[in-house]
TrEMBL record, chain A:
GO terms for biological process: peptide transport; transmembrane transport. This is ABC transporter ATP-binding protein. It comes from the Bacteria. Residues 425-445 are annotated as: Disordered. Pfam families: ABC_tran, oligo_HPY. PROSITE patterns: ABC_TRANSPORTER_1, ABC_TRANSPORTER_2.
UniProtKB/TrEMBL annotation, chain B:
Belongs to the binding-protein-dependent transport system permease family. The keyword Transmembrane helix applies. The keyword Transmembrane helix applies. It comes from the Bacteria. It holds the Pfam family OppC_N. This is ABC transporter permease. The lineage of its organism: Bacteria, Bacillati, Actinomycetota, Actinomycetes, Propionibacteriales. It is found in: Cell membrane.
Amino acid sequence: MAWPSTEPIVDIRDLSVHYGLRGGSLARLIGSDAGTVKAVDGINLTLRRGEVVGLVGESGSGKSTLGRALLGLAPATEGSIEFEGQDLADLSGRRLRALRRDIQMVFQDPSAALNPAMTVEEAVGDALRVHGMRSASERRTKVIDALERVGLSPVELFLEKYPRDLSGGQKQRVVLARAIITGPSVLVADEPISMLDMSVRAKILQLMLDLKQDLGLTYVYITHDLASAKFFCDRIAIMYLGRVVEIGPTEEIFANPRHPYTKALLRAIPDPDPGRQLPRDLPRGEVPDAASPPFGCAFHPRCNEATPICGWESRDLRALIEGHWTRRSAEEYAGERSIVGDLDHLDKPTTGATIGSAGSAETRVFLDRVRAEKPDEPIWGGIDAINDVGSGVRVQFREGVDPALRRAGEVQVACVLYPDEPTGVEAAESDRDRPPPPPEPVSAGINRRTVGLTVVGLIAALLPFVAFAGITREFVQNGVLTSYSRINVLGILGGVVAFGCGWALLTKGGGAERAPWWKAVGVVVALLGVLQFLHGSSLLVAVSPCQSERVDSTWCR
Amino acid sequence: MRKVLRAMAKPFTDTTGTARWMLVAGIVITAIFVICAIFAPLLAPYGFAQASAEGVRFPKAGPPSGDHLFGTDRLFFDVFSRTIWGARTAIQVVLLSILICVVVGVPLGLVSGYYGGWFDRILLLVMDALFAFPSFLLAIVFSFLLTDILGGSVLAVALSLSAIYIPQYYRVVRNTTVSAKEATYVEAARAIGASDFVIMRRYLFQNVVQSVPVIGTLNAADAILTLAGLGFLGLGIQSTDAAEWGHDLNRALEDAGSGVWWTGLYPGLAIVLLVTGLTLVGEGLNETINPTLRVRRLLPVHMPAREER
Amino acid sequence: MSIEMSNAMSLEMSREPVISARDVRVWYGTTRGAIRAVDGVSFDLAPGETLGLVGESGCGKSTLGRGLMGLLPKGAKRDGEVWFEGKDILSMRPKDSYRLRGSHLGMIFQEPLTRLNPLMRISDHFQESIKQHDPSLTKDEIKQRALDALRLMGIPPTRYRSYPHEFSGGMRQRLMIAMALVLKPSFVVADEPTTALDVLVEAQIVQILNDLRRNFNTSLLLITHNVGIVAEACDRVAVMYAGRIVEQGRVADVFENPQHPYTRELLRSTISLRTTGLNFIPGAPPDLVDPPDGCRFHPRCPEAMAVCATRNPVNIERPRGGRVECWLVGPEDEIPPGGKQRLKQEELTVADEA
Ligand SMILES: Nc1ncnc2c1ncn2[C@@H]1O[C@H](COP(=O)(O)OP(=O)(O)OP(=O)(O)O)[C@@H](O)[C@H]1O
Ligand SMILES: Nc1ncnc2c1ncn2[C@@H]1O[C@H](COP(=O)(O)OP(=O)(O)OP(=O)(O)O)[C@@H](O)[C@H]1O
Ligand code: SF4
Ligand SMILES: [Mg+2]
Ligand SMILES: [Mg+2]
C-alpha cells in the first residue's frame, strides 16, 4: 500500500472561487450585479501522495466546488493550485484537458454521470479517445481491463449495456472504470456513495480502497457523512460556507473535536447503537445563505459556544425574536408583535438594528422579556448598547471577529475559542479577522443612454414585424393587401431609426468602458435596421399587388 | 443495425391505444404518397404536362372516364397523372426543406445553446424575429426573392420553406441543449478531458435531437400546406415545370363555376390526406417520445387467492 | 394532548392497536407481469408508537406506505385487511377512504417542495386542507390551529403568509409535518422524510418526529434507509425484504440480537462510527416479478439450508417478542428430514447486482 508519504502532489494556496449571482431580468438588462457567492473562500490544503483527504460539510459548504477546482472545472478567482509543481492557472485549455488524465473525478449520482446514449464500452473508452487513442481495438482491450478491475465481470455482459440497464452500484463502478482508465494519480470522489443503497455503499467503498492500493491513488473524498469519512480518510477537513473550519488527522478529529461545528456534526450522526441517546443540544437553524454570510464567524448563529465577539448582527436578533414567538401563545404574540412591528428590515445585515414601533420603553420591556426567557443566549453578550430612537430602540452589536485557521494541538481550527498564535502561512490569513468588506460593484460603466439606445433601436427594428401580424390576418380574411403601404413606411422608418441607434451604440455606447458586448449590440441593432429597411423597400416592389405581374389578378381587386 | 431497427420499432412497442392507431394510420397514408412519389413514372399513365397520347389530343376539361380516371383539365392535362406527379413534387420539396432545416437548425441550436453568451442572444433574437413573423408572408417574400435568383425550381421553394421552419428546430435544439449542458454527464465528460467539440458531438447531440423527428413530421405537414398555398397564389413552381397541387387548385377555381368539379377535388383531396397522414405520424411520435403523454401497456394484475404462510 | 397525559401512557403493547394490517398485498401491473412489491405483510401499531420500516431499495417500503394510504397508481391492486378504528380501510368505498385520508391518516413525503403548490401561500395550504375535512371551522379557528401546528414545529407565526419557496429545505419538511399533523391524525406514514436533508437538519427532524408521540399521541410508520434513525426515533422496527416483513420487534431487541440473517447482514453492512471493516450482502434483492421460491433471501443468505430453497419459512414468535420468519429460528418440527443441510450457494458476483 502506498502509505501516505510527505511528498506533496497537489498544493492549494489561498484558493477562492466566487460566483457572480444573476439578478432578475431587469437587473440583467441593466447589467447590475446581485452580489457574489464565495463558494470557496481562501482555502489552503496540501495533498500528499497516497493519502485520503476527506472534505466534510453540509450542503453549500463548497466541497464540490473545491473538488471541481482541482480539475480546473471551476475557475479560481484567487489563489493557486499546483499539481506536481505545475500551476493549473498557467495552463492553456488544451494542456489543462491533457492534465485531466492525471486528476480524475467520480460523481455523486452515477445515473446522471453517464451519458444515457452511450454504451458502457463507449463511455469508458471515451476517456481514452479524447486523449488521442484512435484504435478501437486497443481501446477495447483497455476498457475490458478497467471493467475487470472495478469488478464488472463477466465483462462481455456489460460492454454493450446502456446505463439504464444497470443498477446504481454497477453504474458507479462504470464511472470508476472511466476514471481510472487513463491512469490518474489523484481521484476526486464527490459523494461517491451517498446516492447508493446502503447495502451497496460498503461494496463501492471497498472497491475504492482496492483501487487505491493497486494503483497508488491519492483520494479527495467529499462527503457529508462523517461515519464513512472516519473509516476511509487519513485526514479530514471540515468545511462550512466556503471555509475550512477544522482540519487534522482523522483520529484526532474524532477523538477530540474542537470546533463547535465539528462537535455538532459528530453528535448528529444517527447511530444504530440502541443504547445511544438522542442528542438534545443540536445547533438550530440551517446553513445560511452563502450570498450574504453571517458577520464574523459564519457558524455563530447556530453555535452553542458562541462568544460576544463572534459577529452578532441584526439577522440574529430577528431569529431570536421569532424563536421567542414560537413559544408564545397567540394573544401574547399579537400583543408583542404590535410593540415591535415588522421585522423584515432586519434581514439587511447590520451591527446597528432598529426595532420597535410603539415606543422605546415598551420595546425595552419586550426585549427584557425575551431575555428573561433565555438569559443564556450568547447574543446578549454581543450587545454593546441599547439606545432610544424615535418610537423604538437601536440595538448596537459588538464588532465581530472572523477567526482564521490556527494550530490547536494536532489540528488546525478556525474558532475564537482557540486563539493560539498564528504561525507561518496562517499569519497572512489572520488579516481576514475583520468584518467582511462591502461587496464591490462589478460592472459599472453602462449608462442610461446605452440602455435607452438599445431599447429604442430594438423596438424600431422589431415593431414592423408586429405590424405585419395584423396585416396578415387582414390578408387571410379579405384576401386583399390593403395596408401594404403602411408596412413599407413603417419598415423603412423603423429601419432608419434602428440603424441610427445601432450606429450610435457602436460608436458611443457602453459609457466609460466600451465593452465588446455593447459593440455587438450596436452591430445587431444596426443590422436589423438595415434588414428592416431593405425589407420595407423590397416589399414595396414585391408584394404590392397588381404592380407585380406575378400575383394572380383575382387577388387584388 | 439491430440498434437502429429496435429504435425504429420502439414507437410501436411502447404505445397503446390511440397513439398507436394514430401512428399506424399516419404511416400507412404517408407511405402511399411516398410510393406514388417514388414510382410516379410507373404509376401515372401520362406525363404531368402531357396533353396528348399517340397523337390523339386529350379532351378539354373532360369528365372522369376509362382513359382519364380523374378526368382532364382545361389545359388538356390528365388530372390523375398530375395528382400522382404532384405527390412527387410535394415530397421532394418537403424532404429537401427538412434536410436543410436539420442541417442548419440543429448545429446552430447546439452551438448557440452550448456556448451561450452574446452569440446565443443575437441568434435567439434573429430567430425569434423570424418566428414571430407571419410564416406564410415570410414564405411569399422568400419565394419572390429566391425565384428571381434560382427560378421557379424545387430548390427555391424548398429554401423558402426552410427559412420559416429553421427557427423551430433552432429553438427546440437550443433549449434542450441549454438544459442538457448542465447535466452531470457533460461535466463528467469535461472531467475526462473532452473538448467542447467532442462534448457537443458525442455527448449532447444524441440527447438533444430526440424531438427533431416530431417537429420534422409536424413541419412536413405544415410545409405541404404552405407549398400548396404558394402554388395557389401562383408563386413557386410553374405548372409546366412540375405538377403541383396548389397550382392546380388555383386553376380549378375557374372550373368550379362551370360544373367541372374533378380538376379541384383530386388535388385538394391529396393535400388533405397527406397533411392528415403526416400530422397523425407527428402526433403519434410525440406521444411515444414525450414521457408525460405516454401510456404504457400494463398487464392486468391477477392476485391468486391468499395462501397460508 | 398534554404532556402529563402522554407520560401516563406508557407504550404497552396490550393496548388496542390504532392500525392493524393483516396479510396486505400490493402488486403493480407492468409490461412484464405483476410486481409483487408487497406480498403478505402483517403488523400492528399501538397509539403513540413509532414503527421503523427498513430494508434495501426496492423492497416495497414505499409501496406498503402508499398502499396503506390508498395512494396507488393505475394498474396496481391491493388486498388483505387493514383495520383502523374498527373498519377495514381496504374494503371501504373510495369516498370514505378519501375522507379518512388527511383527517385520520396522514402522509409525509421525502421531497416537500414537490408536494406544495408554489403559487399558494402557506396559509392557503392550511386553509385548503383543513376546510376540506372540517368545513364548519371559521377562518380564525383555522388560523389558530395552523399557527399552533407551525409553532410546535418551530416555525414563527410571522412566516404564516409566506410562499413555499421562501423556506429552506428543513423548514419545508417541518411545514409538511405541520400540515400532516394539523388535523391531528392518529396514524401517519413518513416516507424517508429526511433523506434530502443535511445531517444537522436531519437530526432536528428526527427529534421532532421523536417528540410527535408526546405532543400528538400519533402513531407513526417511519420508512427510512437509515438504521441509525430507526434506533433513535422508533419503538419498534420492521425489516422488509422482497415484499415481506422478515423480522419485527422492539428496536433494542432486534438490533442487539437479530434473529433473521438478513437483519444481521443489513446491520453489519451499515457504515457507522464504529465500523472497522467493510461488510456487505452479496448480490441484490430479487426481481419481484418472479421472486425465488421458498425463502426469498435464500440465494443471498450465508446460512441457507436445503429447506430454505423449497419451502416458505413460517412466521413465528421471536424468542424475545416480535415476529420473524426464517427456518433457522424454526419451527423445528416443520423442517423435513435432511432439510437442515447447508445449501450449496452459487457464487454471487457484481453481475448479479442488477
Ligand atoms: N455554477 C455555480 N454558479 C453559482 N453558484 C454556484 C455554482 N456552483 C456552486 N455554487 C454555489 O456555491 C456554493 C457551494 O456549492 P457546492 O456545490 O460547492 O457545495 P457542496 O458543499 O458541494 O454542497 P452539496 O453537499 O449540496 O453538494 C453554494 O452556495 C452554491 O449555491
Ligand atoms: N408505480 C410503480 N409501477 C410499477 N412498479 C413500481 C412502481 N413503484 C414501485 N415499483 C416497483 O415496486 C418495487 C418496490 O418499490 P418501492 O418504491 O416500494 O421500494 P422501496 O423499498 O420504497 O425502495 P426505496 O428504498 O428505493 O424507496 C420495486 O421493484 C419498484 O421497481
Ligand atoms: S430462511 Fe434460510 S435463507 Fe432465509 S434467511 Fe433464514 S436461513 Fe437464510
Ligand atoms: Mg456537492
Ligand atoms: Mg421508497
